[in-house]
Structures are given as structure tokens and as C-alpha cells.
């Protein structure tokens, strides 16, 4: 384990650290069981919060601050490798996947920070409202208007909490959609890599066929046949020209002579 207590970040295998960071964030950003808001007094009773939530909130914030320098360190490793290695199609696809994972980690860190701030603000509102209500009950004031106002404030706080929970659910759905899109992107990149690999394999097979003994023998046989046919062409040309026949006035003879002028190596 590294000093951060989350995952190791070494120069030998920075990408494994990246995957471990993503797993830890997904586990840590879930709401822990047993931490919930309770209203034991009914609709108008004081609101209470379990005692472990403050400690868990501090642990999450500490986790975020530990993950930020490690994410920067992974980016530095990636820059060093990019500068020292020649990129292959496999490395390019792997780098794109790493960049997407780093971006996903950064987005999750920001989302967790925002969610913690929202929860902390809502918790402060509820605690303040509960304390004010308790103080007003102790004072035993007869101002019913103020009490009604406080009850209305508490109801509004409950409505705000409900809306925030719905917003969190929508954010979770959005994260699921992003994950599915990322998975589809990975699948398409893998398919492209398979296609490129298959093309390279076909090229290698074609090159090996061209260099095979059988192909060389066929080429040599074809070359000999072309040479024989060329000799026959020259013989026929000499026969026609040596006979002193006026081949220009005979269409068939003229066409035959023109055909004999063709270069068989160009066919």
C-alpha cells in the first residue's frame, strides 16, 4: 500500500493503480448503510442524524484529497511513456482507454465533492431548524405565528431533501448511461483493433505466399512461356517481311502483323 492508504502508485505499473483508484472511488462514494435522517417526533418532531455521518464525511473528503495527487501522478507517467515510446495501434487504443478512465475518475471526484457539499448543507439546515424549534419550545412562547412559520420551514426542508434525493437518483441514472457509453466505446475500439489485426494477418499471409517456392516456380514457368512466345512472334514477323508480300493492302495480314508487334510482358 502507498502512503495514501488507498492504492499503490508505482512507475512499473501505473495503469493498475488507475483501475484500483476507480474501484475505490466507486466503493467509497456509495452512501454507507446505517446513515439516514430520522424524524422520531412525527411530522413536527425534531430531526436527528446518526453520529457516524460526520466521521464518514471527513473520511470521504480525505479520500478525495489523496486521490487528486495520485491522478496527477498517473498523468505524468503517461506523458513520460508517450515521449519515450513509438505508438502502435494497440498502444493508441490503450491510451485512449486510460484517458477515458482518468477523465471518469476526475468526474467522479467532482461529483462526490458536490454531493458531499449538498448533503452537508442540507444537514446544517436540518440541524439549525431542529435547534431553533427546540429553543422555541423551551422558551414556551405564545407567538403562534412564529411557530407556524417554523413548522412551514421544516416542511420546506423536507421537500428540499426529497427533491435532492430525486436529483441524486437522476445523477445515478446519468452515471449509468455514461458507463454504458464508455463500455460501448471500449467494445468498438476492441472491434477496430481486431479488424486491424486481421488486415495485418492477411497482408502477412499474402507476402508469405508471394515468397513461397510454389509461386516462384510458377513465375519462372510463365517467364519462359513469354520468352518462347516472343521468339515465335519474331519468326512470324520475319517470314511475312521476308516474303515481300504487300501486307498493307491485305487487312487480315495487316492485323496479324500488328498483333505480332505487341509486347507480351505488358499483358
Describe this structure in words.
α1 (14-28) packs antiparallel against α2 and α2 (53-84) runs antiparallel to α3. This protein is 77% helix and 1% strand. It has a two-stranded antiparallel sheet with strand order 1-2. The chain has helices at residues 14-28, 53-84, 89-139, 144-210, 213-242, 251-260, and strands at 37-38, 48-49. The chain has 2 domains: 14-210; 213-266. The chain is an all-alpha fold and 267 residues long. The radius of gyration is 40 Å and the shape is rod-shaped. The protein starts with 13 loop residues before the first helix and ends in a 7-residue tail after the last helix. Residues 1-18 and 28-50 have low confidence and may be disordered.
